[in-house]
């Protein structure tokens, strides 16, 4: 009788849809392979819509280098594919000679799983809070403060690299207005500074890579502690966690859906009612017992 009762409770669809699991979300951390230098891997993301400014802008597109953490951010009136391509070409490729993007491999982040694009998501969270403090609510001039926020971000020390993005990008510390400029530079030959810059950047980048690798291993060990790594097979029934809830009494998970493709930790599931396909992270799934 005990086993019968347990099976009955475990196969209750309402219980599976509404009950809260107090354990850590399933799925281990899968860190992105670190680039060995600048201009090898970039992340992009839109933020908005924000209140429309007098210039007609209501979105912000941020682009970051995954090695240096250097960020550029551009206010835009829309987020179309054409606008994105134009900004990427004019504000990144033409300035930083990032020609590898012409032979690119586009990796899409999983919906409602911001850890996939963590570097740019971190900037956006910082940017939004700083802009909120500076914006004049009467005229919605947030785009006027965007460059100042980006400057502050790029000149601050990054926790994982132990360098500021500015240092890894230009091979020297930023000279801020309160600081005194050096009176003179002494180089015996015109190209000595270039050689000095190359050596400095090499030292900075090697140390930054070591720091990022060390922190990446630490974060993975901490994240994975006491966390399950569940695998699903094609044909399994699962419940998908909702990203928003219409009320506090709404169900947390969807009705049963079926796994149609496995790319662990990402899965493609299909709603058998309307045939719609969803791309979800394993942490957003719950096994369905029927």
UniProtKB/TrEMBL annotation:
| One Gene Ontology molecular-function label | nucleic acid binding
Supply the InterPro entries for this chain.
Answer: Gypsy_RT_Integrase-like (IPR052160), Integrase_cat-core (IPR001584), RNaseH-like_sf (IPR012337), RNaseH_sf (IPR036397)
Q: Which domain of life is it from?
A: Eukaryota
Residue ranges of every copy of the Integrase catalytic domain listed in the record: 97-173
Query: A GO biological process this protein is involved in?
Result: DNA integration
Identification of the protein by name: Integrase catalytic domain-containing protein
Identify the PROSITE patterns for this entry. INTEGRASE
Pfam families xref list: rve_3
């Amino acid at each position: 009788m005990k086993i019968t009762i347990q099976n009955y409770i475990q196969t209750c669809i309402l219980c599976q849809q509404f009950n809260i699991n107090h354990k850590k979300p399933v799925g281990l951390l899968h860190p992105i392979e670190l680039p060995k230098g600048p201009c090898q891997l970039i992340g992009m993301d839109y933020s908005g819509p924000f209140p429309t400014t007098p210039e007609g802008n209501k979105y912000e597109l941020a682009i970051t280098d995954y090695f240096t953490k250097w960020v550029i951010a551009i206010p835009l009136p829309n987020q179309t594919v054409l606008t994105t391509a134009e900004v990427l070409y004019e504000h990144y490729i033409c300035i930083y000679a990032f020609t590898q993007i012409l032979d690119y491999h586009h990796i899409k982040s999983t919906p409602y799983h911001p850890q996939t694009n963590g570097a740019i998501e971190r900037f956006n969270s910082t940017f939004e809070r700083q802009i909120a403090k500076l914006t004049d609510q009467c005229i919605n001039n947030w785009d006027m403060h965007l460059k100042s926020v980006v400057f502050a971000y790029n000149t601050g020390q990054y926790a994982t690299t132990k360098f500021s993005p500015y240092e890894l990008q230009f091979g020297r510390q930023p000279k801020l207005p309160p600081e005194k400029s050096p009176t003179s530079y002494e180089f015996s030959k015109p190209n000595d500074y270039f050689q000095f810059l190359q050596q400095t950047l090499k030292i900075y980048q090697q140390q930054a890579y070591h720091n990022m690798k060390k922190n990446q291993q630490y974060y993975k060990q901490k994240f994975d502690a006491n966390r399950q790594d569940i695998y699903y097979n094609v044909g399994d029934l699962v419940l998908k966690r909702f990203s928003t809830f219409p009320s506090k009494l709404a169900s947390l998970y969807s009705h049963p859906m079926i796994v149609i493709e496995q790319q662990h930790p990402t899965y493609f599931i299909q709603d058998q009612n309307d045939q719609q396909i969803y791309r979800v992270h394993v942490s957003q799934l719950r096994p369905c017992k029927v």
